[in-house]
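Cont'd.
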Amino acid sequence: MAMNRDEIRDRFSSLLDGELEADERAEIEAVLAQDAELLRELDSLKRVDLLYRALPKPTAPEGFEADVRERVHPPRIALPMHHARRRVWPALAAAAILVVTVGFVVIQMQTPGNNFDLASTSTPAAPAPSASASSEMSEKVSEGLIDHQDIQKLESLGYAGTAPMEAEHKAEADSAGARADSPVPASAAAPVEVQAVESPSPLQDMSINTLGKTVEPESTVGMRVQELKKEKQTNDFGEVAAEAPPMPASKPVLSAKAAAEASVDVETPKPAAPPAVSRWVMKQEDRAMTEESALGGIALQPTTPRRIANRDFDLRDGVFYQRGYNGEPTVPVVRGTKTADDLKSKHDGFDEIFRDAKPFVFKLGDRWYKLSSPE
Amino acid sequence: MVLLREARTHTDTGLVERCRKGDSSAFDELVRRYKDRVYCVAYRYLGNREDALDVSQEVFVRAYRGIGSFRGTAQVCTWLHSITANLARNRLRDGSRMGRDKGTSLEAMRENSPGLADAGDGHASPREAAIAEETQEMLLKCLGELPEQYRLAFVLRTFDDLSYEEIAEVMECPVGTVKSRLNQARQLLRDQLREHAVI
């Protein structure tokens, strides 16, 4: 059926766009060939189309892509510099502390001969002093009430012949060991009643009044003390070695902490057990003890001082300490060596200490020296 | 730059896939490919440069966010034009609510279409150039006065050469409707241009 004029008009747009089927297109073209009016209408539409297609095509302005990118991925708001610093520095500090701590632990674990490892710290190697006994001992000692028997017990367990500070080190070591061995129940320790006795006789240089208190077994004291002593003796000349500070005579008090840890069992000394604490922990305790000793340490009875070159020296644990010495690092000097001779020649009045057989700790200039005889 | 060069070798579908995987360079390439087409349609449909810019940028933002839901059955260009059409319609309605002139004034066209002043082949006399400019202004004005559906169909066909099927897809209507709308649009434009003695 042939299309009427309106149906042909409705297809003008499709005809212009080439969207008509071939037969439809042929039919319309046949009609248009005979209908001038329809042909003019088609031409006018074609002209409209051409006019609009001739318009310039707008293009996206410059920066369009960047704007879209910014909207899609908005940049982070930059904090002012001082805010950024506030955020960064605590994190850096925390990271640094973490790295140093982890590194230190790793190094200690890998050090030959170091018994620090998780297994050793968690294995109860020997009965540890109970907390209650330690506490009692702490009170006793902090009040200056340890008696001679206590000291003898300390000696029998390896404290003998050591300086007061070393005893403290041992106590600290035991304390650390006890903490590391915390799984050991307090009841496992056999408490021993120590009689309160007035003790006029000093232990070497020490003289301590006590009351009787309960003390508990101790395991690794002697071994730890020996280790500490070895550490101190391995210092070479020229190196500044940490020296156990002497006890100031004016402050004859044992630190409560050290005393609390010095809980030992006189009756049943145990064989040396593997240390249950790392060396670095010991050294930290060591430093802590040094600080404590500067404030107050094991009760000591000052001996007759010697006066040499206008300086007073107190004898403690077989060593003459120049007064004023508070545990500063010392430079070891051995009598008869060139260094000793140099010191002797440069400082008048010190001949006496170079002739003596006992060790001397003295100050020359801004340094502390420990003069000892060759072994 | 390497990523961008590589992205340019991909098909639209490949770019969409890469966009889904978080390849920002692929999305940049999509923007680069379609920004002018999207902007042109938006501009001719809205008759306003600023609105066209806002809408066309928003088209790509929406596309980026919705790229996960792009089924891939449609072409990327029709998908983008669909978004453009929806956003542009919303913009027109918002403009109407705000009392903005629905049509496009000659002054506004002149302001928004600096290219109109350069109409012509560049060798025309001042009189011919003025006539050409006036003609273009009138064309745009008449276009702006078309009903939205007719205008959109006409713009998609005339300025982006979409097929009827593609226009139907964009406008979500049958192809027959597209034919009808296009035919109506051209007849209306012709009548208006005759009124203004343009043709």
